[in-house]
Structure formats: structure tokens, C-alpha cells
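Progress against Task 2.4 (sequence-to-structure conversion) is shown through the following example record, which the project officer requested during the mid-term review.
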Amino acid sequence: MVRIKNTLSDEEYVHMGVPQGTVRGPPLFVTNISFLFDLPIGDREASHLDDTVFVFGANDWQGPGYWGLMNPQWNMCSKGRRQSPINVEPDKLLFDPYLNSINIDKHKVSGTLHNTGQSLVFRVDKDAKHLVNISGGPLAYRYQFEEIYIHYGIENRLGSEHQIYGYTFPAEIQLYGFNKELYHNMSEAQHKPQGIVGISLMVQIGDTPNPELRIVTSVFHKVKFKGEY
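C-alpha cells generated for the chain above:
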């Protein structure tokens, strides 16, 4: 949106980059160019002041699939086995006949919805009377539910962080909890072994509203901008 004196332009979504002349333009430009020369981008980069786009093909030798081989500091790009986001390919998964169901306590909790500028996050109140535990499945410990991250996009077809068979869902809900048997809180657990559990729920658009999900989505209009609670 552009303002000239007392006249405002129509509101338009920015799908990529930063509009020229914005307040954030100069600092983003400086941040942007500070690492451009370290990236193996060749001629696959298009840049216009503070707007930069990188495009890679599925088998591009300059793409993310090869970054772990180009720089020793990026070796986890090729060695990592627990990276996120991922594309789940069900036909390559191994069936575990002994895997039990995930158990989540059915307690009502209160919390705060926060716009981080990247996603909407629901955090359970610290003084909540009832704690929600996550256990079972492949988990060897009990995890205390702490946060929900909600990912969605401007377009319905591009919202989820992860994919299944290359398909991106309209939205994704991620539940996070910390290992309450080994650690005291999320901050302590997040960098420790077996510290955090994450459960992703893929969201499809249907004709029938989900009343439980609606409890959260009904207040989205109150946190339109970064930093709002």
C-alpha cells in the first residue's frame, strides 16, 4: 500500500521481495548482499536492488541437493538425516507392526496466539491448571505440549511446510512439546537429545468446518501484523 499525502492506494499482496522505497528496503538489501558471493548460484540468480530470487531445477548441480559437497561448513546438507522440511514418500516408508498410536491428553488449555511475522504461534499459558502430555507411538518419554505453529499461504495450494509425494497442502498445524522427564522447559530441551517432539497435521479444505480448529482460526483477524498478540 502506498500513501501520498492523504490518499492511499489499493492494497496489494507482495508475493516475493520487497517493494522499492519501503522502510525495510535498505536494511534488507544490506543483509541480502552480505552473503550472495558465498552461494553457489552461478547465473541462476535474479536480483533487482532488494529483490532477489534463486531458482534451481530438481537435478541442478548448483541446487540444495549438492550444497553439502561444495563447502565443508555445509556438510550437514548431505549428511543430515533429521532435516526439515521434508517430502514424505509413503512407498519408501517401512511398516512397523509394533508401532502404537500417539496418545495426547484431552484437557482444555488456555494460551496466547502470537504473530511472529513468519507464522502464527499458540503458546500455552505458563500457569495452566491442566497439562497436556504427548506419549506413545515411537516415543520413549512423555512430552508436555507447549506450542502450536500454524502455517498457511496466500494461495490455498501453497501453505504447508512439508509435502507428501511432492504435494503441498493448503495448511499445516504443528504441535510441539518438550521432554518433561529429562528437562524442565522448552528452552532447555530444544537443543538436547530427545528434547522436543513435533507432530504435523496436514490441512485440507472441505465443505464442513472443523469446530475445534475454528476456536483458533476465529481470532486470526486479531493478529494480522507481526508482533501482535
